[in-house]
Amino acid sequence: MDNNSIDLSDKEKKLTKQVTVWAVWYEDKFGWGEDRDPAFVLDAFLTREEADAYALAKGGPIDINAGKFDGQEVEGMKLFELVYLNELPVERVRELLKEAESKKLI
Fold first, then answer.
1. Rounded to an integer, what distance in angstroms lies between the CA atom of residue 99 and that of residue 39?
2. Which among 33, 44, 48, 73 could bridge 23 via Cys, Cβ 3.0 to 4.6 Å?
């Protein structure tokens, strides 16, 4: 997989360091040891509420107060981290930046 950061402008890269998102990670809670699939991001949102709703729709709650769902985990982080890890398509990164700008978060 190509690194998404090469597709972003310098301005976009800088802005990703200013935006906090809530990532919904898929966590393989069904396999054991080496049989487990690696975790990956399903999507990211600007609010914890949006991320929790998405995770709840994807699976049932295990412990909603801890941000853990059946097969998903919700975690807050800078958008830059997801770009660096190459976890989101560049188009989704740009959508989140545009949404953050429209909400005057950046």
1. 26
2. 44
Is 0.85 topped by the overall pTM?
Answer: no
Distance between CA atoms of residues 29 and 70, nearest Å:
8
CA separation for the pair 95, 106 (Å, rounded):
13
Residue 5 CB partners (closer than 8 Å, separation 6+): 13, 83, 84, 86
- In the chain the beta strands, taken as DSSP E runs, fall at 20-26, 40-45, 61-63, 68-69, 72-78
Q: Is 100 left (phi over 0), alpha (psi -120 to 50) or beta?
A: alpha
Q: pLDDT tens, 3-56? A: 555 689 999 999 999 999 999 988 776 666 777 677 889 999 999 999 999 988
Nearest C-alpha neighbor of 79 from the set 54, 56, 101, 49: 101
Cβ–Cβ under 8 Å, residues 10 and 91 = no
- Contact yes or no for 68/62 (Cβ under 8 A): yes
